[in-house]
Amino acid sequence: MNSKTMCLQKSRVNSEQWKLLQRDPQLLKLAQQLNRNRTQSNITTSKQIKIGNQTISRIKLDSIKNDQNDVTQYQSEEQAKQKQTITSRSAQFTRKINLNNHIQLKKVHHGNYFFDKIKEILTSDLKDNSPLKKMSRDALNQIHMMITYQEFIPEVSLLYQGKSQKQLKIAFDLDETLIHTEQVQKDKVYDFQNNEFGVYIRPYCHHILKELSQYADLFIYTSANQKYAKTIINLIDPENKYFKGHYYRNNCITLQSRIQVKHLGILSNDYSKIVIIDNSPIFYMGQPYNGIPIAPFIDDINDNELMKLLNFVTEKLLQSDDVRITIRRFFQYDMFRQFSDGIQAFNILYN
Predict the structure, then answer these.
(1) What are the structural domains, with CATH classification, of the chain?
(2) What b/e readout covers 254-279, taking b as 16+ CB neighbours within 10 angstroms?
């Protein structure tokens, strides 16, 4: 045994153990072999270790702890990147949510879509004068009004000239349907915000737009002004891949009673294959049986109405020869005629 090996061996055993090894050649040979194995495993290995989402090539087994520290630092850096600046056509927003934080998707049956959510809101602990409860009561009364109110609806010119082989056309409202905006409050964390206002994106918004765009031509039809609406649209569809067209306040018509209406005639001449989704039913008074109400949204992170809507559209409307017949039956719009207002109709029909 050379002096180098002896020094190496002595560094791993005490004096008594060393004397014992010298008396037993077989035991000494075994100790030398163990020493070589330890040395090799500490010096080199070709194994790959996967920590989090990063594949790390390691040289020493002892370096695992250091690698894990590197991963922790990497994750901290990723979290720091959550505040991203997104430049839209007319404003600059800071995104406060994690871009990689995917919502767990669960299939939700539509059930009594819309009415179940309205009931949940109206029976909640919210104050009666809270915006959410007020908008819910307004939606019920607007259903009653659009069915019973009589006023001449003028014809409009077709604005959308695109051609498609898809089964359906769907127009989405913006505010309280897909998003909610408000003046920035310091104690709130928004999905996006700039110096003017904060924006909450309704849960599952991007998911249903992606899913429905496979079967339908999607549009935005809002009563908001064009500058504001374009800013919001650029946040929910920055690559302009979901919506075939955007229509604004100037594309609405104003009746003699000064009621503003979104006329679907600007999108299609075939009313059997077009719907509008809006939290304010009064806006589709011109074509009541083409309108799908949706419960208002403000900031509820547990809201899943868009998933119920997706289920309703795919299971009911895509199979329908005429969406007006399906909508008329499902929402029992005509039953509202029997009551003095929408809240009374709701309390009797759905409670």
Answers:
(1) 3-43 (no CATH), 49-95 (no CATH), 115-349 (3.40.50.1000)
(2) eeeeebebbbbbbbbeebebbbbbbb
Computed over its alpha carbons, how large is the radius of gyration of the chain?
Answer: 32
For 12, residues 6+ apart whose C-beta sits below 8 A from its C-beta are: 31, 35
**Residues 184, 182: Cα–Cα separation, whole Å:** 6
Per-residue pLDDT reduced to its tens digit, 220-238: 999 999 999 999 999 999 9
Q: pTM here?
A: 0.72
Give whole-number Cα distances, 328 to 157, 216, 292, 323, 331, in Å. 26, 20, 10, 8, 6
- Per-residue pLDDT reduced to its tens digit, 88-124: 333 455 555 443 344 555 555 567 899 999 999 999 9
Question: Residue 171: beta bridge partners?
Answer: 219, 276
CA distance 221 to 253: 12
CB 201 within 8 A of CB 247: no
Residue 218 sits at φ, ψ, to 5 deg, of -105, 145
